[in-house]
Prior knowledge:
Elements: H1 2-6, H2 13-24, E1 29-33, E2 39-45, E3 48-54, H3 61-77, E4 96-99, E5 105-112, E6 117-118, H4 126-142, H5 175-195, E7 200-203, E8 212-214, E9 222-225, E10 232-235, H6 237-247, H7 254-268, H8 273-276, H9 279-296
Antiparallel strand pairs: 1-2, 2-3, 3-5, 4-5, 6-8, 7-10, 8-9
Helix pairs in contact: 4-6, 4-7, 5-9, 6-7, 6-9
Amino acid sequence: MNDMLKTTPDFSIDAAAALLVEHYGLSGTLSPLASERDQNFKVTTTEGTFILKLINAAEPEVESDFQTALLAHLGTHAGDLPVPHIRPTLSGGSLASTTSPHGVQHRIRLVSWVEGRPLAETERSDAALQSLGRMLGRFDAALQGFMHPGALRDLDWNIRNAGRSAGRLQHVSAAEDRALLERFLMRFAAIAPRLATLRAAVIHNDANDWNVLVDTGDADRISGLIDFGDALHSPVIAEVAIAAAYAGLDHGDPIGAAAAIASGFHAEYPLQEEEIDLLYDLIAIRLVTSVTISASDR
């Protein structure tokens, strides 16, 4: 990540607007959006609202090609899903490219804006969480049979690699917290070999409550799923576990929240008994991963 921060794009709004005209033939109002490793702008035009993404120069091309292929697959096979859809360049490509004043090349992607309010800013009702499960089930069902070399990523956020959290425990200062994390790591070590026997596919892998959007007029309906930066090939049940891990934080009934998500997912993409059997431990180990990565980044 440190290398990626050194190659983060830093274009002015005027420069970004010029790229929008050059590669997409569009003009409008640009507003910067927060991003850790890329540079994003919300673009409002007479033809609609979009996100202009200037991709970090350090991102391997196979990864940006993977995200592009994933979005294109969804556009073809699940065009009604409320996810970002690619706007082609003037030449018909899915990506454009430009060279910064520093001589660094950045790839460019323009996708449709998805309306909604982050789930993190809502009450996370049971109906909303069940709607989230259904959305993820539809999303993963649409990706059945899809594969790309860029999906085989060696990320610490891949639930298969959750055992690496043991190497970050020293960054957790409180002894009682470390002891709790160690107990869940021991449980994970016992079940980790079973992950290889489960169904695996390309999944979103990061349905946290900031990447999930709720209908502004109906707090019980999920209206969008965004940010595919951590998508990869992993056990299907990890999709449910990750969403449940974040939805359960500061929730009055975290087990009930997980059940609502699992129920919705199962309605669209039936879960298997051996997957459900591991759900509790996979929810816990995702939180272990999140806590230890956060602690090591301080």
